[in-house]
């Protein structure tokens, strides 16, 4: 049966980028549909009535919502190529833990860096760097979080690299100076076509963040 | 090799209850260790240095953190009995979605019901009931979210039933009046030994909430 795969997405979304990378890693052809989040399509509202958010992966007409759930789904359906999760249950649990850490900590802390200023921003920057250092420690000397090849945690986290330039400009700090190993890892990931083609241009992301700041009245 | 399983937990935690139920469903003997969250043990801090939270599942000395990650781990390691997740990738993705919904919505909305009063509480109650109705709709006419037997979503959600009495007393409303099918499902789950033995007494939970309210200065 011909597979029909559609991804409802929004170009700067780190969450959407995860699914783009996973689909590319598996070599799956799909239709990318750009959503205007200020004017959500009927399709999006129908396919994700609970959260009304992107990304939504639609496989043969059936929606899968939430980016990490999509990545696991993609890994399980197209299991014969480029495995993203380890097969060992303990290693799988560890991978899930760190992807969850990215969601729980890094996303919110990164947001606070560009959304705040003064004292609040100083605190956000400090906590953000601390969280990056923690995940950098988890990487250790491995080329990827997944070991010798790109894995679940790499896919979960690398999209944030496209936002690092925006965080740095907004927060006036240098992530590479604090976490050189992490930046080396990010550049290594960017060498892969699946990642390079999936991540938004960092300057475009910064311009987008500036627009958002204006929109929300944040200087 | 003799399996050594330890669960660091806190008796009223709905998250801890999930792992208790999963372990009981699989018939796994384990050591339950009660943590005093105001005086966390050295073991807890060593086993979950990142979040310092319970529950922590320790299997042959290796920690697994985050309750839903633990339930999936338990399901994958002890896979020959009482499967909790479906084998079909799409059904699996759907189960993960609803467990994630419980985490994203139920916990926070329920917390707001007992932590607030007046207008704020009225809003919290309304949103909480709406979220319960949504998940009740997902249950439909199935005996369990997992179909004919207890599954991942049932385990993710049933612990909150032990808190319903406390929510109802604090918010002065009846959940059964609004969501009769959900309460019928909950009572059905409570018929199972794995659930009944894992959930604390609802009166005890209410007394605990009253203590917490006093502690936080909420009337």
TrEMBL record, chain A:
It is an enzyme of class 2 (transferase). One of its GO terms (cellular component) is cytosol. Its EC number is 2.5.1.18. Belongs to the GST superfamily. Tau family. One of its GO terms (biological process) is glutathione metabolic process. Is involved in the conjugation of reduced glutathione to a wide number of exogenous and endogenous hydrophobic electrophiles. InterPro entries: Glutathione-S-Trfase_C-like, Glutathione-S-Trfase_C_sf, Glutathione_S-Trfase, Glutathione_S-Trfase_N, GST_C_Tau, Omega/Tau-like, Thioredoxin-like_sf. It catalyses: RX + glutathione = an S-substituted glutathione + a halide anion + H(+). Residues 88-216 form the GST C-terminal domain. It is found in: Cytoplasm, Cytosol. Residues 3-82 form the GST N-terminal domain. Signal peptide: none annotated. Keywords: Cytoplasm, Detoxification, Transferase. It comes from the Eukaryota. PANTHER family: GLUTATHIONE S-TRANSFERASE U19 (PTHR11260:SF781), GLUTATHIONE S-TRANSFERASE, GST, SUPERFAMILY, GST DOMAIN CONTAINING (PTHR11260). Gene3D superfamilies: 1.20.1050.10, Glutaredoxin. It comes from Gossypium anomalum. This is Glutathione S-transferase.
From TrEMBL, chain B:
The keyword Cytoplasm applies. Residues 3-82 form the GST N-terminal domain. GO terms for cellular component: cytosol. One of its GO terms (biological process) is glutathione metabolic process. It comes from the Eukaryota. GO terms for molecular function: glutathione transferase activity. Belongs to the GST superfamily. Tau family. This is Glutathione S-transferase. It comes from Gossypium anomalum.
């Amino acid at each position: 049966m011909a597979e029909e795969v559609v991804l409802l997405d929004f170009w700067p979304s780190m969450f959407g980028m995860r699914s783009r990378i996973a689909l590319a890693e598996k070599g799956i052809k799909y239709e990318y549909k750009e959503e205007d989040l200020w004017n959500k399509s009927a399709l999006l509202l129908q396919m994700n009535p609970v959260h009304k958010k992107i990304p939504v992966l639609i496989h043969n007409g059936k929606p899968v919502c939430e980016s990490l759930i999509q990545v696991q789904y993609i890994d399980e359906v197209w299991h014969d190529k480029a495995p993203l999760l380890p097969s060992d249950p303990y290693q799988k649990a560890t991978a899930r833990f760190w992807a969850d850490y990215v969601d729980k900590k890094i996303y919110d802390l990164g947001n606070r860096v560009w959304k705040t200023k003064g004292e609040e921003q100083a605190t956000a920057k400090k906590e953000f760097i601390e969280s990056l250092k923690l995940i950098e420690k988890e990487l250790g000397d491995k080329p990827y979080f997944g070991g010798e090849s790109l894995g679940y945690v790499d896919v979960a986290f690398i999209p944030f690299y496209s936002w690092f330039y925006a965080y740095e400009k907004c927060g006036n700090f240098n992530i590479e100076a604090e976490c050189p190993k992490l930046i080396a890892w990010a550049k290594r990931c960017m060498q892969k076509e699946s990642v390079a083609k999936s991540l938004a241009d960092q300057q475009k992301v910064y311009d987008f963040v500036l627009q958002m700041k204006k929109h929300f009245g944040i200087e």
